[in-house]
Amino acid sequence: MAEQTTVIGINFGATYSAIACINKVPLGLLSGERVGQTRLMTVTELLRLLRLRHPNPDGDRQIASVIAFSGVEEYTGNQAQAQIVRNPNHTVAAFRNLIGKSFSETEILTGSAAPVIEKNGLPAYEIPLDDEKTVTFSVKEVTSKYLRHIRSSAEAFLGNPITGAVLSIPSYFTDHQRDEFRAAATDAGIPVLQFIHESAAAALAYHVGQQGNMHEPRDQTVVIADLGGHSFDVTVLNVRSGMFNILATAHDTQLGGVTFDELLVAHFASEFKKKTKIDVTENKKALAKLRASAEITKRTLTNQNQAPCSVESLADGLDFHGTINRLRFEILASKVFSRCLDVIQEVLTKADLDPNEIDEVLLVGGSSRIPKLSTKLRDIFKSESTRIRLDIEPDEAVAYGCAIQASLIQGFDPEDIAASIHPVITLTPHTAKPIGVIDAKGDFVVIVPRDTPLPVRRPFEFGNVAEGQKQVYLALWEGEHEVVRETLSKPADADEGYEPETVVHLKTKAHTLLAELVLDGLADGLKAGRSKIEVVVTVDAEERVTVVMREKKFGGKVVKVEVGGK
Amino acid sequence: MTLVLDFLLPPPPDTWSQTSSSVVHKPISGKSAAPRIIEPVGPHFHAYARRKRHNRTFSEDER
Ligand SMILES: Nc1ncnc2c1ncn2[C@@H]1O[C@H](COP(=O)(O)OP(=O)(O)OP(=O)(O)O)[C@@H](O)[C@H]1O
Ligand SMILES: [Mg+2]
Q: Which Gene Ontology CC terms are recorded (chain A) (predicted)?
C-alpha cells in the first residue's frame, strides 16, 4: 500500500459538501497510472477508488449537508437527506449559512427540515428524542457534529488521522461567521490550516494564473460563476505575477438549484391537480416528496432531452407520474437564467471591466451543469477569446482547490501561516492604471496591468534592434481606458427600417508620459536580431517606478531611471 | 517570468537632446495605488509574504 498524505480540502456547502485530497495513487487502481506516482486526486477519483474497495451500490458522489437524528444515532449525507421526507423534525438541513448569525438575521431556506427555534438569541434546532423528550442543538453544534462525520469518513478512507485541512468559505461570510465556523471545525477535531474563499479555491483548481500546469505565473482575469443549491455567487478575480485579487463579488441568495426544483414542483403540482383535482401546494409532506423527485428530474434533464418524475402516494394515496422535456424546462426557467446574467453584469460593472477583458469564465457549483447556463453566458461573453470552462466537476472544484492549497502549506509552522495571512501582509497597494510602452505601430503595450499588487517587478526583453542601429529609445507611459463606440457597417441585405448597430468596447491608450530612456553605444553595424535589450520595470509599494534598460549580449551600457515615490 | 516582446525599439526621436540618457516626466497618478487585500493562496503567495514580512526587495530575496 502506498503511503497516504493526511492533509485534505473541505468544501462545506449549504446543500452539498465535498472532500478532496492529494494522494499517492496506490497500485494501478486508476487505469494507466504508474505505481506510487504522486498526483492530484479529485474527489471523483477518490470515490471511484473507494467504490473499488467497498462497492457503493448507490454510487453517490456528493455528501448532502444534512444531519438526521434517531435516538442517539446520527446520520449524515444521503442517508440523512432521505429523512427530510420521512422524519423532517429529526432532520437538520440547509444550516450552513446560519452559522455566526443571530436569530433575527436567520433566513429559512427552502427544503430545510426541522424548524429553527431561538435559543439565547441564536438560531437552534429542537430535535425530538425517542422517549418524548427533546434536545436542543445550536447551529454551531450541528455544524460541528456534521463536520465530525466528514472528518471520520475521510480518515476511514485514508486510513490515517487528518493532520491538516483547508476549508472554504463563501465571499459573503463575515469575520464572525468565519470564526464561529473555525470553532465548530476545531470542536469536530479538524486541524484547520487555513480558510480560503470558495472563488479563490475554484481558481486554484483551474490553475488560473499559471502557464498550463507549470508554475510560471501568467496574468489572467477570470469570472467565477458558482451556481449551487441555494445561491448564485459571482466573483471577478485576477492573478498578477501569481497574486490572487478579488476585484468584485455579487451574489443572489434567492437563486440556485432549489429555484429550478421549485419551478418543477409547481409545474408537476398543477399537472397533478389537473388529473386528480387535489391541490398539494399547502401539503408539506407532499411537497417534500415532490421536491425530492423534482431534483432528480432536473438532474436527468442535464443529460437527456426528456425526464420522468414519479412519486408514489403523493396525496390521498394517489401516485403521480409525469414527464417533462428539456425545452419545456428551459422555458419555465428562462427568468432564472436572466437573473443569473443580471448578477454577472452587476459584478462586471462593479469591477469596471468589459466582458472582452475576461480571459475565462469558470463554472462551478452543481447547478452550473444545466446546459442552458453556458449557452446563455454567451449573451454577455461574446468574444471567442473568453473561454467558458466546465472541465472540472463543478461540485468538486472548490474542494479540489482547497486540497491544492493544503498541500502547498502542509508542513508550514501554524504561526507562520497565521502571520502570513494577517492583513498586515495581505493588505497591499495596487495599480489603478496600466503602465506600458508604445510599439513601433504606435499601439500601447501593457507591461504592468491595472490592479496589480505592489511591489511588482516585470522584466521584458526585445529580441532585436534594426541593423545598424546604435541607439534605442523607450518611452514609458501610464495608460487609460477609453470607451470605443464602433458603428457596424450596414449589411448588404438590410431592409428599410435598418437601424445601425453600435458596439461599445474598452481600449487602453497611452495617456501620461512617465519617463523616456535612451540606451546608446550599441556595437556598430549589428545585424538585426543580434542585440538583446532587457528592460526591467519595477513599481514599489511607495509608487516609485524604476526602469533599468541594458544590452545583454555585448555588455556594458545600462540606463536607469526612477520616477516618483512617496 | 520574462516577457519577450517582438517589436523593435525605435531610435530616439529627432526632438531627443543628446546630452542625457533619460528624462523623468511624471509619477504615476497619485491616489492610483488603492490598497486591497490579496488572497493568501497559490504557489506564489508565500514568496510574497516572506519578502513583506522580512522587508526584502525582489533581488535581496533571490540571494
Ligand atoms: N447534473 C445536475 N444537473 C442539474 N443540477 C444539478 C446537477 N448536479 C447537481 N445539481 C444541483 O446542484 C445543487 C448543489 O450544488 P452544490 O453542490 O454546488 O451546492 P452547495 O455549494 O452546497 O450550494 P450552496 O452553498 O450555494 O447552497 C443542487 O441544487 C443540485 O440539484
Ligand atoms: Mg458551493
A: cytosol; nucleus
